[in-house]
Write a structure and sequence with these properties.
single chain, 3-stranded antiparallel beta sheet, 4 helices, 13 strands
């Protein structure tokens, strides 16, 4: 089990999202009042390619442990500043397989669709930050640390302090890839 440490949303297509006391997840749509809410893709570059794509990026989750790691390297990053809707602690988000269900708070359920592919806006936010959230492992494979994306299966209000319960899909498990 883990914990929600912060929740964020922005009605505008801004890089950072202000934190709040709660957000409401809407089944099949995403975060109520967020610019990325919708059945079809809302990310600007993806809309340009094909506006009819399904929105697999309704809710962006990021682990607070990344903020801790960045702080130890001299970067100051607070919840919501990298565009996430839900900041978590105590769940290894990056190791979850595709299709994992996360029960957020008493009612909401999201299904993990993939990794966030960090974009150059991260570098514009803080010089050198992109190299901290995208790197290579000992085998030369790209490692993306900027959180995961999900869709809302069951709506509900969530807030900091709410529990996160992880439900892994039946095996075999499929590793996360960028969506």
């Amino acid at each position: 089990m883990g914990t929600i440490t912060a929740v964020s949303r922005s009605a505008e297509h801004t890089f950072t999202k202000p934190t709040g006391e709660s957000i409401t997840l809407l089944a099949g749509l995403g975060v109520e009042g967020d610019a990325h809410q919708g059945v079809t893709v809302k990310h600007r570059s993806r809309v340009k390619r094909d506006p009819t794509q399904p929105n697999l990026r309704q809710v962006h989750l990021m682990h607070a442990e990344l903020h801790d790691e960045l702080a130890s390297s001299g970067f100051r990053v607070a919840p919501g500043q990298l565009g996430e809707n839900v900041t978590t602690r105590g769940v290894d988000l990056l190791s979850l397989p595709t299709g994992t269900r996360l029960r957020l708070g008493p009612h909401a359920v999201v299904e993990v669709t993939g990794l966030r592919n960090p974009c150059p806006q991260i570098e514009a936010f803080q010089d050198g930050l992109l190299k901290q959230v995208v790197g290579r492992d000992e085998h030369g494979d790209v490692v993306r640390k900027a959180g995961i994306m999900s869709i809302v299966l069951t709506g509900g209000e969530i807030r900091p302090g709410d529990e996160i319960r992880v439900e892994l899909p039946d095996g075999p498990h499929t590793p996360l890839i960028p969506v």
